[in-house]
Design brief:
CATH topology: Multidrug-efflux Transporter Regulator, Chain: A, Domain 2
Radius of gyration: 17 Å
Shape: globular
CATH architecture: Orthogonal Bundle
Length: about 110
């Protein structure tokens, strides 16, 4: 409840890893032009299934990476090559954290 006693309602879409999104779907969901998603693919930030943009299929994880890419560019002014590097480093950090978690639970 907020300060005036009214309830705040949030809505969203939960996308599982198995969800398949087309180029149009992911661009619409991320509120960006299809060209931006194509640039992310060309830079190696996203790796969809399929050879051509019309047959590309993206997962919920791709949507998350596209959203993080937007934030990095908007909030920090990082170019696409920098975004690709930042995401690669974040992936490595997450893998190391998972390795530590596995070791600690043994």
């Amino acid at each position: 409840m907020d300060s005036e006693g009214m309830q705040l309602h949030l809505s969203g879409i939960i996308l599982e890893e198995q969800t398949e999104l087309t180029l149009a779907d992911i661009s619409r969901t991320c509120a960006v032009h299809e060209e931006y998603i194509i640039e992310l693919v060309n830079e190696g930030v996203l790796a969809p299934v399929g050879r051509e943009p019309v047959s590309w299929r993206f997962s919920g994880a791709h949507m998350h990476r596209a959203t993080v890419s937007q934030r990095l560019q908007r909030d920090l002014g990082i170019n696409l090559a920098g975004v690709a590097l930042a995401l690669q480093l974040l992936d490595e950090i997450n893998a190391l954290r998972e390795s530590i978690r596995v070791i600690e639970t043994k």
